[in-house]
Protein backbone atom coordinates (compact mmCIF):
# COMPACT_ATOMS: atom_id res chain seq x y z
CA UNK A 1 0.00 0.00 0.00
CA UNK A 2 2.85 2.38 0.83
CA UNK A 3 4.25 2.09 -2.70
CA UNK A 4 0.97 3.24 -4.23
CA UNK A 5 -0.46 5.59 -1.61
CA UNK A 6 2.54 7.60 -0.43
CA UNK A 7 3.52 8.89 -3.91
CA UNK A 8 -0.08 10.02 -4.51
CA UNK A 9 -0.09 11.92 -1.23
CA UNK A 10 3.27 13.51 -2.06
CA UNK A 11 1.94 14.54 -5.49
CA UNK A 12 -1.08 16.08 -3.75
CA UNK A 13 1.19 18.19 -1.54
CA UNK A 14 3.14 19.28 -4.61
CA UNK A 15 -0.08 20.15 -6.48
CA UNK A 16 -1.45 22.28 -3.65
CA UNK A 17 1.77 24.24 -3.17
CA UNK A 18 2.31 24.48 -6.94
CA UNK A 19 -1.03 26.26 -7.17
CA UNK A 20 0.45 29.22 -5.35
CA UNK A 21 2.28 30.03 -8.59
CA UNK A 22 1.07 27.59 -11.27
CA UNK A 23 -1.19 30.19 -12.91
CA UNK A 24 1.63 32.72 -13.22
CA UNK A 25 2.37 32.02 -16.90
CA UNK A 26 -1.35 31.83 -17.61
CA UNK A 27 -2.07 35.29 -16.19
CA UNK A 28 -1.55 37.10 -19.52
CA UNK A 29 -4.07 34.75 -21.18
CA UNK A 30 -6.48 35.09 -18.26
CA UNK A 31 -6.07 38.85 -18.46
CA UNK A 32 -7.17 38.85 -22.11
CA UNK A 33 -9.78 36.06 -21.94
CA UNK A 34 -11.61 37.50 -18.92
CA UNK A 35 -11.10 41.13 -20.06
CA UNK A 36 -9.52 42.38 -16.85
CA UNK A 37 -6.47 44.39 -15.73
CA UNK A 38 -3.04 43.54 -14.32
CA UNK A 39 -4.10 44.68 -10.84
CA UNK A 40 -7.26 42.50 -10.95
CA UNK A 41 -5.59 39.43 -12.41
CA UNK A 42 -3.01 39.57 -9.61
CA UNK A 43 -5.85 38.55 -7.28
CA UNK A 44 -5.92 35.13 -8.95
CA UNK A 45 -2.60 34.65 -7.16
CA UNK A 46 -3.31 36.78 -4.10
CA UNK A 47 -6.64 35.12 -3.22
CA UNK A 48 -5.23 31.58 -3.17
CA UNK A 49 -2.14 32.50 -1.16
CA UNK A 50 -4.07 34.74 1.23
CA UNK A 51 -6.71 32.13 2.08
CA UNK A 52 -4.16 29.30 2.33
CA UNK A 53 -1.90 31.44 4.53
CA UNK A 54 -4.73 32.46 6.85
CA UNK A 55 -6.43 29.07 6.99
CA UNK A 56 -3.39 26.86 7.60
CA UNK A 57 -3.01 27.32 11.38
CA UNK A 58 -6.76 27.37 12.25
CA UNK A 59 -7.18 24.22 10.16
CA UNK A 60 -4.41 22.43 12.03
CA UNK A 61 -5.83 23.46 15.42
CA UNK A 62 -9.48 22.92 14.58
CA UNK A 63 -9.05 19.43 13.13
CA UNK A 64 -6.54 18.18 15.69
CA UNK A 65 -8.93 15.52 16.99
CA UNK A 66 -10.15 14.33 13.59
CA UNK A 67 -8.50 11.34 11.92
CA UNK A 68 -5.88 12.54 9.40
CA UNK A 69 -7.28 10.31 6.65
CA UNK A 70 -10.65 12.04 6.97
CA UNK A 71 -9.09 15.51 7.03
CA UNK A 72 -6.91 14.69 4.03
CA UNK A 73 -9.67 13.06 2.00
CA UNK A 74 -12.16 15.90 2.58
CA UNK A 75 -9.54 18.52 1.78
CA UNK A 76 -8.46 16.77 -1.42
CA UNK A 77 -12.08 16.39 -2.54
CA UNK A 78 -12.76 20.10 -1.96
CA UNK A 79 -9.55 20.96 -3.80
CA UNK A 80 -10.58 18.79 -6.77
CA UNK A 81 -14.08 20.30 -6.96
CA UNK A 82 -12.75 23.85 -6.72
CA UNK A 83 -10.18 23.11 -9.44
CA UNK A 84 -13.01 22.06 -11.75
CA UNK A 85 -14.87 25.25 -10.83
CA UNK A 86 -11.78 27.31 -11.73
CA UNK A 87 -11.66 25.64 -15.13
CA UNK A 88 -15.21 26.70 -16.05
CA UNK A 89 -15.06 30.24 -14.60
CA UNK A 90 -16.25 32.87 -17.08
CA UNK A 91 -15.41 35.99 -15.08
CA UNK A 92 -12.54 37.17 -12.94
CA UNK A 93 -14.82 37.36 -9.90
CA UNK A 94 -15.90 33.72 -10.23
CA UNK A 95 -12.32 32.59 -10.78
CA UNK A 96 -11.15 34.41 -7.64
CA UNK A 97 -13.99 32.88 -5.59
CA UNK A 98 -13.12 29.39 -6.86
CA UNK A 99 -9.47 29.96 -5.99
CA UNK A 100 -10.47 30.82 -2.41
CA UNK A 101 -12.37 27.53 -2.06
CA UNK A 102 -9.46 25.71 -3.67
CA UNK A 103 -7.13 27.16 -1.04
CA UNK A 104 -9.41 26.04 1.81
CA UNK A 105 -9.39 22.51 0.45
CA UNK A 106 -5.63 22.75 0.00
CA UNK A 107 -5.14 23.72 3.66
CA UNK A 108 -7.05 20.63 4.80
CA UNK A 109 -5.16 18.44 2.32
CA UNK A 110 -1.75 19.65 3.52
CA UNK A 111 -2.66 19.09 7.18
CA UNK A 112 -3.91 15.56 6.52
CA UNK A 113 -1.15 14.54 4.11
CA UNK A 114 1.63 15.41 6.53
CA UNK A 115 0.31 13.06 9.20
CA UNK A 116 -0.48 10.36 6.64
CA UNK A 117 3.06 10.49 5.22
CA UNK A 118 4.46 10.24 8.74
CA UNK A 119 2.24 7.22 9.37
CA UNK A 120 3.49 5.57 6.17
CA UNK A 121 7.18 6.48 6.28
CA UNK A 122 7.95 7.30 9.89
CA UNK A 123 8.47 10.78 11.31
CA UNK A 124 11.81 11.73 9.80
CA UNK A 125 11.22 10.46 6.27
CA UNK A 126 7.56 11.50 6.26
CA UNK A 127 8.36 15.11 7.17
CA UNK A 128 11.23 15.19 4.65
CA UNK A 129 8.92 13.88 1.91
CA UNK A 130 6.27 16.48 2.76
CA UNK A 131 8.82 19.32 2.69
CA UNK A 132 10.52 18.14 -0.51
CA UNK A 133 7.21 17.71 -2.35
CA UNK A 134 6.27 21.27 -1.42
CA UNK A 135 9.58 22.73 -2.64
CA UNK A 136 9.34 20.84 -5.94
CA UNK A 137 5.74 21.95 -6.43
CA UNK A 138 6.56 25.59 -5.72
CA UNK A 139 9.55 25.58 -8.07
CA UNK A 140 7.97 23.72 -11.00
CA UNK A 141 4.48 25.24 -10.83
CA UNK A 142 5.06 28.14 -13.25
CA UNK A 143 6.76 25.89 -15.81
CA UNK A 144 3.94 23.33 -15.79
CA UNK A 145 1.34 26.08 -16.01
CA UNK A 146 3.05 27.72 -18.97
CA UNK A 147 3.37 24.49 -20.94
CA UNK A 148 -0.28 23.58 -20.34
CA UNK A 149 -1.41 27.07 -21.32
CA UNK A 150 0.56 26.95 -24.56
CA UNK A 151 -0.45 23.39 -25.46
CA UNK A 152 -4.14 23.75 -24.57
CA UNK A 153 -5.43 26.77 -22.63
CA UNK A 154 -5.22 28.32 -19.18
CA UNK A 155 -8.24 26.22 -18.14
CA UNK A 156 -6.15 23.07 -18.70
CA UNK A 157 -4.07 24.00 -15.65
CA UNK A 158 -7.05 23.27 -13.44
CA UNK A 159 -8.50 20.40 -15.48
CA UNK A 160 -5.39 18.21 -15.16
CA UNK A 161 -5.39 18.59 -11.37
CA UNK A 162 -8.82 17.02 -10.98
CA UNK A 163 -7.97 13.36 -11.84
CA UNK A 164 -4.83 13.42 -9.67
CA UNK A 165 -6.83 14.79 -6.74
CA UNK A 166 -9.68 12.31 -7.27
CA UNK A 167 -7.21 9.40 -7.17
CA UNK A 168 -5.68 10.79 -3.97
CA UNK A 169 -9.01 10.70 -2.06
CA UNK A 170 -9.22 6.89 -1.75
CA UNK A 171 -5.45 6.83 -1.19
CA UNK A 172 -5.86 9.05 1.88
CA UNK A 173 -8.78 6.98 3.20
CA UNK A 174 -6.73 3.79 2.84
CA UNK A 175 -4.20 4.86 5.48
CA UNK A 176 -5.14 3.70 8.97
CA UNK A 177 -4.05 6.08 11.72
CA UNK A 178 -5.39 7.43 14.96
CA UNK A 179 -6.33 11.08 15.55
CA UNK A 180 -3.67 13.75 15.34
CA UNK A 181 -1.56 13.88 18.52
CA UNK A 182 -2.65 16.55 20.99
CA UNK A 183 0.05 16.83 23.65
CA UNK A 184 -0.63 18.43 27.01
CA UNK A 185 -0.18 22.21 26.79
CA UNK A 186 1.85 22.45 29.97
CA UNK A 187 4.45 19.87 28.99
CA UNK A 188 5.10 19.46 25.27
CA UNK A 189 3.36 22.28 23.43
CA UNK A 190 6.00 24.56 21.93
CA UNK A 191 5.84 28.12 20.72
CA UNK A 192 6.17 28.81 16.97
CA UNK A 193 9.71 29.36 15.73
CA UNK A 194 9.57 33.07 14.97
CA UNK A 195 12.89 33.58 13.22
CA UNK A 196 12.72 30.86 10.51
CA UNK A 197 9.05 31.64 9.83
CA UNK A 198 9.82 35.35 9.47
CA UNK A 199 12.68 34.53 7.11
CA UNK A 200 10.35 32.26 5.12
CA UNK A 201 7.79 35.06 4.82
CA UNK A 202 10.31 37.68 3.65
CA UNK A 203 11.99 35.29 1.24
CA UNK A 204 8.63 34.25 -0.23
CA UNK A 205 7.76 37.92 -0.72
CA UNK A 206 11.05 38.40 -2.58
CA UNK A 207 10.53 35.29 -4.74
CA UNK A 208 7.20 36.73 -5.88
CA UNK A 209 9.16 39.12 -8.09
CA UNK A 210 10.84 36.19 -9.82
CA UNK A 211 7.72 34.02 -10.13
CA UNK A 212 5.18 36.72 -11.02
CA UNK A 213 6.83 39.79 -12.50
CA UNK A 214 9.43 37.96 -14.58
CA UNK A 215 6.65 36.03 -16.31
CA UNK A 216 4.73 39.21 -17.09
CA UNK A 217 7.92 40.74 -18.47
CA UNK A 218 8.61 37.76 -20.75
CA UNK A 219 5.04 37.29 -22.02
CA UNK A 220 3.53 40.78 -21.97
CA UNK A 221 6.64 42.94 -22.15
CA UNK A 222 8.78 40.91 -24.54
CA UNK A 223 5.89 39.16 -26.37
CA UNK A 224 7.11 35.59 -25.89
CA UNK A 225 4.65 32.69 -25.95
CA UNK A 226 3.77 30.94 -22.66
CA UNK A 227 5.72 27.86 -23.79
CA UNK A 228 8.84 29.90 -24.53
CA UNK A 229 8.50 31.69 -21.20
CA UNK A 230 7.99 28.34 -19.44
CA UNK A 231 11.21 26.99 -20.92
CA UNK A 232 12.99 30.22 -19.98
CA UNK A 233 11.86 30.14 -16.33
CA UNK A 234 12.64 26.41 -16.06
CA UNK A 235 16.11 27.59 -15.07
CA UNK A 236 14.75 28.30 -11.56
CA UNK A 237 13.49 24.76 -10.70
CA UNK A 238 16.52 23.14 -12.35
CA UNK A 239 18.87 25.28 -10.28
CA UNK A 240 16.78 24.60 -7.16
CA UNK A 241 17.13 20.84 -7.70
CA UNK A 242 20.89 21.24 -8.15
CA UNK A 243 21.21 23.15 -4.88
CA UNK A 244 20.83 20.14 -2.58
CA UNK A 245 23.65 18.04 -4.11
CA UNK A 246 25.85 21.14 -4.09
CA UNK A 247 25.11 21.76 -0.42
CA UNK A 248 25.88 18.12 0.47
CA UNK A 249 29.20 18.44 -1.36
CA UNK A 250 30.26 21.58 0.49
CA UNK A 251 28.81 20.64 3.92
CA UNK A 252 27.96 24.15 5.13
CA UNK A 253 26.09 24.69 8.38
CA UNK A 254 22.34 25.26 8.12
CA UNK A 255 22.71 28.95 9.03
CA UNK A 256 25.42 29.51 6.41
CA UNK A 257 23.37 27.66 3.80
CA UNK A 258 20.29 29.80 4.47
CA UNK A 259 22.30 33.05 4.51
CA UNK A 260 24.00 32.21 1.22
CA UNK A 261 20.63 31.29 -0.28
CA UNK A 262 19.07 34.63 0.72
CA UNK A 263 22.06 36.48 -0.74
CA UNK A 264 21.80 34.54 -4.01
CA UNK A 265 18.09 35.37 -4.34
CA UNK A 266 18.85 39.06 -3.75
CA UNK A 267 21.65 38.97 -6.31
CA UNK A 268 19.49 37.25 -8.90
CA UNK A 269 16.68 39.78 -8.52
CA UNK A 270 19.18 42.65 -8.77
CA UNK A 271 20.47 41.03 -11.97
CA UNK A 272 16.94 40.97 -13.42
CA UNK A 273 16.60 44.66 -12.58
CA UNK A 274 19.73 45.49 -14.59
CA UNK A 275 19.13 43.49 -17.77
CA UNK A 276 21.00 45.19 -20.64
CA UNK A 277 18.54 44.12 -23.34
CA UNK A 278 15.39 42.11 -24.03
CA UNK A 279 17.27 38.90 -24.76
CA UNK A 280 16.28 35.72 -22.95
CA UNK A 281 19.95 34.76 -22.56
CA UNK A 282 20.47 37.63 -20.14
CA UNK A 283 17.88 36.16 -17.75
CA UNK A 284 19.60 32.77 -17.38
CA UNK A 285 22.29 33.70 -14.85
CA UNK A 286 19.97 35.75 -12.57
CA UNK A 287 17.40 32.94 -12.61
CA UNK A 288 20.09 30.37 -11.79
CA UNK A 289 21.07 32.42 -8.73
CA UNK A 290 17.42 32.65 -7.65
CA UNK A 291 16.90 28.90 -8.14
CA UNK A 292 20.01 28.03 -6.13
CA UNK A 293 18.84 30.38 -3.39
CA UNK A 294 15.39 28.78 -3.39
CA UNK A 295 16.85 25.29 -3.12
CA UNK A 296 19.19 26.26 -0.29
CA UNK A 297 16.61 28.03 1.86
CA UNK A 298 13.00 26.84 1.74
CA UNK A 299 13.45 23.27 2.93
CA UNK A 300 16.07 24.23 5.53
CA UNK A 301 13.88 26.99 6.96
CA UNK A 302 10.84 24.70 7.03
CA UNK A 303 12.82 22.00 8.82
CA UNK A 304 14.14 24.54 11.35
CA UNK A 305 10.64 25.84 12.06
CA UNK A 306 9.38 22.28 12.73
CA UNK A 307 12.41 20.74 14.45
CA UNK A 308 11.46 19.05 17.74
CA UNK A 309 8.32 21.19 18.06
CA UNK A 310 4.96 19.77 19.05
CA UNK A 311 2.21 19.54 17.99
CA UNK A 312 3.99 18.78 14.74
CA UNK A 313 1.11 19.68 12.45
CA UNK A 314 0.61 23.10 14.05
CA UNK A 315 4.22 24.06 13.46
CA UNK A 316 4.04 22.75 9.91
CA UNK A 317 0.98 24.95 9.39
CA UNK A 318 2.93 27.96 10.68
CA UNK A 319 5.45 27.41 7.89
CA UNK A 320 2.62 27.21 5.33
CA UNK A 321 1.09 30.41 6.66
CA UNK A 322 4.44 32.22 6.66
CA UNK A 323 5.26 31.22 3.09
CA UNK A 324 1.91 32.08 1.56
CA UNK A 325 1.28 35.27 3.50
CA UNK A 326 4.77 36.28 2.39
CA UNK A 327 3.69 35.78 -1.22
CA UNK A 328 0.67 38.00 -0.55
CA UNK A 329 2.86 40.70 0.98
CA UNK A 330 5.12 40.53 -2.04
CA UNK A 331 2.22 40.89 -4.47
CA UNK A 332 0.67 43.71 -2.45
CA UNK A 333 3.97 45.60 -2.42
CA UNK A 334 5.19 44.84 -5.93
CA UNK A 335 1.99 45.10 -7.98
CA UNK A 336 1.36 48.81 -7.22
CA UNK A 337 5.04 49.59 -7.80
CA UNK A 338 4.99 47.80 -11.13
CA UNK A 339 1.69 49.31 -12.32
CA UNK A 340 2.78 52.83 -11.29
CA UNK A 341 6.09 52.45 -13.14
CA UNK A 342 4.23 51.09 -16.15
CA UNK A 343 1.90 54.08 -16.07
CA UNK A 344 4.86 56.48 -15.81
CA UNK A 345 6.54 54.77 -18.77
CA UNK A 346 3.55 55.23 -21.07
CA UNK A 347 4.12 58.89 -21.94
CA UNK A 348 7.82 58.47 -22.88
CA UNK A 349 6.92 55.33 -24.81
CA UNK A 350 4.17 57.17 -26.71
CA UNK A 351 6.58 59.98 -27.55
CA UNK A 352 9.18 57.50 -28.80
CA UNK A 353 6.54 55.68 -30.87
CA UNK A 354 5.40 58.98 -32.37
CA UNK A 355 8.98 59.83 -33.30
CA UNK A 356 9.47 56.43 -34.95
CA UNK A 357 6.28 56.83 -37.02
CA UNK A 358 7.22 60.37 -38.09
CA UNK A 359 10.72 59.29 -39.14
CA UNK A 360 9.56 56.22 -41.06
CA UNK A 361 10.03 56.39 -44.88
CA UNK A 362 6.32 56.17 -45.59
CA UNK A 363 3.74 58.42 -47.27
CA UNK A 364 2.13 60.97 -44.96
CA UNK A 365 -1.35 59.45 -45.35
CA UNK A 366 -0.09 56.02 -44.23
CA UNK A 367 1.63 57.62 -41.25
CA UNK A 368 -1.56 59.38 -40.20
CA UNK A 369 -3.71 56.24 -40.43
CA UNK A 370 -1.12 54.15 -38.60
CA UNK A 371 -0.70 56.80 -35.89
CA UNK A 372 -4.47 56.86 -35.31
CA UNK A 373 -4.59 53.05 -35.01
CA UNK A 374 -1.60 53.02 -32.63
CA UNK A 375 -3.15 55.76 -30.52
CA UNK A 376 -6.39 53.81 -30.20
CA UNK A 377 -4.48 50.67 -29.13
CA UNK A 378 -2.47 52.60 -26.53
CA UNK A 379 -5.65 54.13 -25.13
CA UNK A 380 -7.48 50.78 -24.94
CA UNK A 381 -4.55 49.07 -23.21
CA UNK A 382 -3.79 51.60 -20.50
CA UNK A 383 -2.50 49.91 -17.33
CA UNK A 384 -1.02 47.04 -19.41
CA UNK A 385 2.09 46.46 -21.48
CA UNK A 386 0.55 47.39 -24.86
CA UNK A 387 0.46 45.03 -27.84
CA UNK A 388 0.57 47.04 -31.07
CA UNK A 389 0.52 44.15 -33.55
CA UNK A 390 -3.21 44.54 -34.17
CA UNK A 391 -2.76 48.15 -35.32
CA UNK A 392 -0.08 47.15 -37.81
CA UNK A 393 -2.00 44.09 -39.01
CA UNK A 394 -5.17 46.06 -39.77
CA UNK A 395 -3.36 48.83 -41.69
CA UNK A 396 -3.75 48.64 -45.48
CA UNK A 397 -0.31 49.37 -46.91
CA UNK A 398 0.60 49.24 -50.57
CA UNK A 399 3.28 46.82 -51.82
CA UNK A 400 5.90 49.57 -52.02
CA UNK A 401 5.32 50.61 -48.40
CA UNK A 402 5.26 47.16 -46.78
CA UNK A 403 9.06 46.79 -46.29
CA UNK A 404 9.17 50.13 -44.48
CA UNK A 405 6.08 49.17 -42.47
CA UNK A 406 7.66 45.86 -41.45
CA UNK A 407 10.82 47.64 -40.31
CA UNK A 408 8.72 50.16 -38.40
CA UNK A 409 6.88 47.34 -36.64
CA UNK A 410 10.21 45.82 -35.57
CA UNK A 411 11.36 49.21 -34.30
CA UNK A 412 8.11 49.65 -32.38
CA UNK A 413 8.50 46.20 -30.80
CA UNK A 414 12.06 47.03 -29.75
CA UNK A 415 10.92 50.31 -28.21
CA UNK A 416 8.14 48.60 -26.25
CA UNK A 417 10.59 45.95 -25.03
CA UNK A 418 12.95 48.65 -23.76
CA UNK A 419 10.09 50.49 -22.06
CA UNK A 420 8.77 47.30 -20.44
CA UNK A 421 12.23 46.27 -19.22
CA UNK A 422 12.70 49.68 -17.61
CA UNK A 423 9.20 49.58 -16.06
CA UNK A 424 9.98 46.33 -14.21
CA UNK A 425 13.33 47.54 -12.85
CA UNK A 426 12.15 49.10 -9.59
CA UNK A 427 9.97 46.10 -8.71
CA UNK A 428 12.88 43.70 -9.11
CA UNK A 429 15.03 45.95 -6.91
CA UNK A 430 12.30 45.99 -4.25
CA UNK A 431 12.26 42.19 -4.40
CA UNK A 432 16.03 42.15 -3.92
CA UNK A 433 15.62 44.42 -0.87
CA UNK A 434 13.09 41.96 0.61
CA UNK A 435 15.60 39.12 0.16
CA UNK A 436 18.24 41.20 1.95
CA UNK A 437 15.78 41.76 4.80
CA UNK A 438 15.40 37.99 4.98
CA UNK A 439 19.19 37.73 5.14
CA UNK A 440 19.25 40.17 8.07
CA UNK A 441 16.90 37.93 10.06
CA UNK A 442 19.38 35.08 9.57
CA UNK A 443 22.60 36.90 10.51
CA UNK A 444 21.14 39.04 13.31
CA UNK A 445 22.46 37.96 16.74
CA UNK A 446 20.32 35.40 18.55
CA UNK A 447 19.07 36.20 22.02
CA UNK A 448 19.96 33.22 24.17
CA UNK A 449 17.35 32.14 26.70
CA UNK A 450 18.55 30.71 30.01
CA UNK A 451 18.22 26.94 30.27
TrEMBL record:
The chain crosses the membrane at residues 42-63, 70-90, 96-120, 127-148, 154-175, 196-219, 225-244, 256-274, 280-299, 320-338, 423-444. This is MFS family permease. It comes from Nocardioides soli. Gene3D superfamilies: Multidrug resistance protein D. One of its GO terms (molecular function) is transmembrane transporter activity. It comes from the Bacteria. Keywords: Membrane, Transmembrane, Transmembrane helix. GO terms for cellular component: plasma membrane. InterPro entries: MFS (IPR011701), MFS_dom (IPR020846), MFS_trans_sf (IPR036259). The keyword Membrane applies. Residues 5-450 form the Major facilitator superfamily (MFS) profile domain. It is a multi-pass membrane protein. It is found in: Cell membrane.
